[in-house]
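Hello Y.,

Per our agreement to keep a running log of every chain we model this quarter, I'm adding this entry. I've kept the format consistent with earlier entries: sequence first, then predicted structure.
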Amino acid sequence: MKAGFCECGAWLLLVSTLLWGCGPGREHEIVVGSKNFAESALLGEILAQQIENKTHLPVVRQFYLAGSFICQQAMLAGRIDMYAEYTGTALTAILRDPIERDPTAVYERVRSEYEKRFQFRVMPSLGFNNTFAIVVRGEDARRLGLRTISDAARYTPQWRAGFGYEFMERPDGYEGMARVYGLRFKEAPVILDLGLLYRSLLDKNVDLVAGNSTDGLLSARDLKMLQDDKHYFPPYEAVPVVREEAIALHPEIAVAIQELAGKISDEEMQKMNYEVVGQQRQASVVAKEFLQAKGLE
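Predicted structure for the entry above:
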């Protein structure tokens, strides 16, 4: 869901490559993309293996394509056929719609508008909601009695914050959250690579970060996710987004992906993320084991 400010030049180069670089003619293969963080790549691997298992079509993986903007442009250009998006991200960052907090309303709006505007099919949710997680050190939460973001707002004027670039820029990100909760910090938030968020927090370089609720390290380190007690963040249900043109050529891919609907719980996603990030297991192996456990291999 996020990407770094220093990557802007690289984004432009990547967009050019995706739009004009690869040549025509992919009628007999499916290209699965992902964003630039471990969960997205893991979901891409699950989609890719499910298609390989169920259709025997050749699948090309184009993972770690920066953030939502790059994936959206790659889809529009026909350079990837699908990737896993999040409904709240699609609503606010792609459609630029106001924040809506009802999960069904968000899904239906995204599904309808993606079909109408982009000719993309938004498939049913994979089953989990990966909302933004406002996280502090566990020791601070215990010492100060912090449970909610409102609790933390009393202390943020003495704190430093670290956020990913996309969280700083998104309409459902930092500015809106700071306004709703009255957050002020000791200095302007620093922009961090997503892979460094929790390390920076645990090393006490910053005191509060915005991660994701299914991050594997949340359950493996002394970290505290604060409750969004004012219900600022919209739902972020993970949904496969597929080009209708790809489905028209290969209807069987929609059938294969449909089998994944509702199969991943929040806890299962967090566990798989920890295996990849915390235990350094290969995403392809974790994805294969997941599909086997669900009887989908």
